[in-house]
Structures are given as structure tokens and as C-alpha cells.
Amino acid sequence: MGTTRLWGHAHLQPQHFPGMQPNGESSILSYDGSMYMKVVMPSVMHTEAEDVSLRFMSQRAFGLLMAATSRESADTLRLELDSGRVKLTVNLVTLGLAGISHAVFKDGTHPFKGPEPAAHLANSPMPQHPARLQTVTWVVHLSKGPEVLYAGQKLNDNDWHSVRVVRRGKNFTLTVDNDMAEGQMAGDHTRLEFNNVETGILTERRFVSSAPSSFIGHLQGLKFNGMQYIDMCKNGDIDFCELNARFGMRFIIADPVTFKTKGSYLGLATLQAYTTMHLFFQFKTTSPDGFIVFNSGDGNDFIAVELVKGFIHYVFNLGNGPSLLKGNSDNPLNDNQWHNVVITRDLANTHTLKVDSKSVTQNVDGAKNLDLKGDLFIGGLGPNMYQNLPKLVVSREGFQGCLASMDLNGRLPDLINDALFRSGQIERGCEGPSTTCQEDSCANMGVCIQQWENFTCDCSMTSYTGTNCNDQRVVIPMTTGDFPSVITVGGLSFSGL
């Protein structure tokens, strides 16, 4: 059976492509981990050449960027973030029938129904009446397994990066910014079969043993053999686009959860971070202190992330004694605004703590493996655990506020549904304080201090007192012997000698 060769798809590259913005820039899609775009082909596609390009921005080290997938085979061309690098997977395992025109019963009927005999070969038993068959030639085209390339590093830096894949038969290249990797297919088969072009979430998982993480970030300029699918979907130029990702450059808060009290916490399965680690989360609070993450391990191994006086502390021990990295933010972070935290550890045992746009790094000699055991605590600890914490860990109470976008080495847990246990008041969503500081919250130059459930007024630098600094302080000097005494009226206690 012949194969149509679509080298470069030159006929699919018009001078002005539908969907392009008037200024020539393509649309941006924002993904929060539950969002995707899926272009469904009107019929199965077969190509021996692909040219794919896109731009992405993310703070996550893992996530699906783009995948061409098949409903009937394990064929794929997939781009994903993997430990902060771009990973390209090319798998060509198309099943097919050769000489199918001769595979007929002697009475003239066909043993297979439908337009895609390859699908029936993969999923159907042998014909029930082999004696009635004339000649059938079965051909199975198999590559030597998926070919994988990597390019780029530390790409989860919340900056734009450009990716391009070019394949011509057996040869293919992956270019990320200025870093290029080359590869070659080991088998004889060079045809890619696909039904879909997917972004954000891999929905075709039938032939995938381990699906990539969902993508959280932004995509722009996806171009597959001349077809600019994001722009086409936006403008309605195609009828076969499934889309729930959001257009525009949006601030992404994924799966927020509120810890309403400092005694609230939950437990997840053990953090898997033996050789390397990529953690990400967002938080929002008005409290200067509180435990955020803790997992103990074998021996003295542990990891802890806490908020101390408004600054992030990352404390860990891989067997060499405890170490501490302090975030170097310009101001305390208990300002009721969202903040991003990225914590990484590479194979060279370099630890990096990045809070918003500012990073600190520490190289640690000695043991390089983090052997964690037991539950991963989020938001706080059990009441009897604080007295046995390792050195350098300061917190003695839990976190009060919102956590979101939790990424644990590529695992994106649902903090509510995936919790092994929960204690206290934990709710989905993040409404924040119901009563917030306003310009007139505190009178007479009192300072409004935002707390999670409400606010308080600091009247210490005024001549007023009371809940909102409305009660005037009256000072009456008195003399008792040689020593003056003071009576304060308006909320303060009397004092004197």
C-alpha cells in the first residue's frame, strides 16, 4: 500500500494565514493545569515530514506543550517540559496491511470493515474463516521504540522560549532558543500517523504508559506544518477545535485552597525527590509566620518550607546536617498578594530558592540523595510534632492563608481530593479576608494591620485608643509626694505611684 509523502507541506503555507493578528503577532493561550486545546483532524493524517514551532512561558518544570496523537496506534510526536528542559518524543509504531486489496474471501466479501484496516489489525481477532481467504499479506511497521531528544535547561524561568522541531524521514532536530539537538530514527518506518494535535493536557492516553503532567503557563504561535492552530481556533477558521484554555496573558492561579486557621493542615503521599527536586507553589497571606511544607525521612533527612517574619525559609538535610536558604525578597510577603515560590535541587546538589523574581543558590557537598519517608504535610503539622522539629526550623504554628498551583516534582495534586487526611478548616478557593484595610479603617493616623479574617488598628503612635483609634487619650498629671502619677482616660488603665 502506497504512502503519501508530505515533505514540508509547502501547499499549506499561505502568505497571509487566517487568524494572524493585524500586527503580525499570534494569539496567546493561558493554561492553569485543567485547560487544553485539542485540534481533531477531519481524517487520519499520515506524514513523513513535520515542521513544528511554538513559544512558551512557564514557571513549572514539567508539563505538556504539544503532542500529535493517534486514536489507533502509539504514534506520537510530543513536546513537553521535563525537569526544566524541553523533551521531544517521536514514536512511529504504525500497524498496517500490505496487499489489502487481495485480502478478500472467495465469495468476494472483505474480512475487515471500515476505512482503516490498520485499526482492525490492532484490535480484531483473526478472521473466523481463514480457509475462505485468498491471499493476505500482513505487514507491521515498527520503529525501535520512541526516540527522545532534550534541549535547553532551566526553562521554567517565567520567560518566553522558542521551540522548533524539524523531521525529514529518519532525521529530526529539536531547537530550543539557541540550543539544538539532533536525532535519527533507528527503525525503517518513517511515517507518523495522527488524528489530533493537543496542547496543555494529553487526552489520548490509550497507548501511553505514563502521561506527561498538565501544562501551567502560556503558549503562543503553535505552528504545525504551516497550520497556526491557536489563531485558527480563536477566529473560528476550523470546526474541529476543542478548547477551554483562555486567550490572553492571564495571571494563573491553579486550584487555590484556603487554610482558614493556623491549626489546619493536610497530608499527601511522600514527596518523591531522591535525586532531583522541582517544587512550585503560590501563596497569599496576611500572617508573617507559618509552616507550609514538611516531609521527614530516613535518618536525619527532611525538607521544610516555612514563612518566617514574612520571608520564605527553605530548610533541608540530605545527611550532611541541616542547611537553610532564606528568600531575599525586598519586603515581607504577608501583604495579602499572591507570590510564587520555586525550589529546585539538581544532580550536582545545587539548591535554588526563587521567590517571585529573586533567587538564592547554595551548593552542598557530601550526600546528594534526599530519602524521604512518611506523609508530606501541607499547611502545618500535627499538634505534637512541633516540639520535635529539626534544627533551623523556626515555625511552631501552621500557615493561615491560601495555597495554589502546587507542583511536586511534576505531580500536580488536588490538595482536597488527594489528601490522605485533613485537619481543621480547609476550603477550596481563596476569597481572602472578608474585611480589608481601607484608607479610613483606622482614624487619627492609626495604622491598619491586615489579618486573615479582619484587621486591627495600631494606635500606639497616636494620642488615641480604641478599636479604630477613635477614643481620645486623656492624660491628667498628678503628684504623689515627689513623684508624678498619670491617669489615662479613654480605654487605658489608671497608673500611679
TrEMBL record:
Q: Which domain of life is it from?
A: Eukaryota
Q: Which SMART domains match?
A: LamG
Q: Which organism is it from?
A: Pleuronectes platessa (European plaice)
Compartment list? Membrane
**Stretches of the chain forming a coiled coil according to its record:** none
Entry-linked InterPro entries: ConA-like_dom_sf (IPR013320), EGF (IPR000742), Laminin_G (IPR001791), Neurexin-related_CASP (IPR050372)
The EGF-like domain covers which part of the protein? 433-470
Q: Name one GO cellular component term.
A: membrane
Sorted keywords for this record are:
Disulfide bond, EGF-like domain, Membrane, Transmembrane, Transmembrane helix
The residue ranges of the Laminin G domain are: 28-241, 255-430
**Protein name as catalogued:** Uncharacterized protein
Q: What is the lineage of its organism?
A: Eukaryota, Metazoa, Chordata, Craniata, Vertebrata
